Amino acid sequence: MAQISKSGFNSSNSIFYSKRKPIALPSNSSLDLTTFISSRAHNGKIAYIDASAGDHLTFPQVWQAVDSLSTSLSDLGIRKGHVVLLLSPNSIYFPIICLSVMSLGAIITTTNPLNTTHEIGKQIADSKPVLAFTTHSLLPKLTPTNLPIVLIDTDSNSRTPKNAKIVSTLTQMLKKQPSQVRVRDRVNQDDTASLLYSSGTTGASKGVVSSHRNLIGMVQTILNRFRLEDGEQTFICTVPMFHIYGLAAFASGLLASGSTIIVLSRFEMDEMFSSIEKYRATYLPLVPPILIGMINSAEVIKKKYDLSSLASVLSGGAPLSKEVTEGFLEKYPTVKILQGYGLTETAGIGASTDDLEESRRYGTAGLLSPSMEARIVDPDSGESLVVNRTGELWLRGPTVMKGYFSNPEATTSTLDSQGWLRTGDLCYIDEDGYIFVVDRLKELIKYKGYQVPPAELEALLLSHPEIVDAAVIPFPDKEVGQYPMAYVVRKTESDLSENAVMDFVAKLVAPYKKVRRVSFVSVIPKNPSGKILRKDLIKLATSKL
Question: Which residues cross the membrane (predicted)?
Answer without folding.
Answer: 242-264
